[in-house]
């Protein structure tokens, strides 16, 4: 595989993202309203998606570009004691459920990241959030998997290759951070 071929696949995915602009803009408005109400965003996923969850939560709390007040966001992937205790005592498939139950409240937003849309623990987390009246969004790949049917909103990056899907997720996440910085810097 050549470097140019990889870049071209990346470019194709980025071009295809343009069709999602109305959906992503609507998500931005929903997140801004959540944050302005004093609520928070709960991010979660596995592997590279866990890293993206942590990255985006940090951008919300610290800043993206502009100095501004901190906004509430938590990555449910960062507390190793909770992750390992829950997985040991209960199940890895419900590792996000208990945290959503403990930390989430109506008015918050839960964003689950899964390239396939079929990660059992992300599906369970989204279902738990919905039971607790938390609005849900899934970031997935091409067809959305099971999450497309479960989440209140599903943003399906138009790619099947895991790396391209993850690149799309972080690009969408960075734009979301940029929009928040731009629109809520003086809030």
Task: Explain how this protein is built.
The chain is of the alpha/beta class and 187 residues long. It contains 8 helices and 5 strands; from the N terminus they run H-H-E-H-E-H-H-E-H-E-H-E-H. A 5-stranded parallel beta sheet has the order 2-1-3-4-5, sandwiched between helices. The protein starts with a helix and ends with a helix.
Describe the secondary-structure layout:
Layout (H helix, E strand, L loop, with lengths): L2 H15 L3 H16 L3 E6 L2 H14 L10 E4 L4 H10 L7 H7 L5 E5 L6 H12 L3 E6 L6 H4 L2 E4 L5 H23 L3
Parallel strand pairs: 1-2, 1-3, 3-4, 4-5
Could you give a quick summary of the protein structure above?
This protein is of the alpha/beta class and 187 residues long. It has helices at 3-17, 21-36, 48-61, 80-89, 97-103, 120-131, 147-150, 162-184, and strands at 40-45, 72-75, 109-113, 135-140, 153-156.
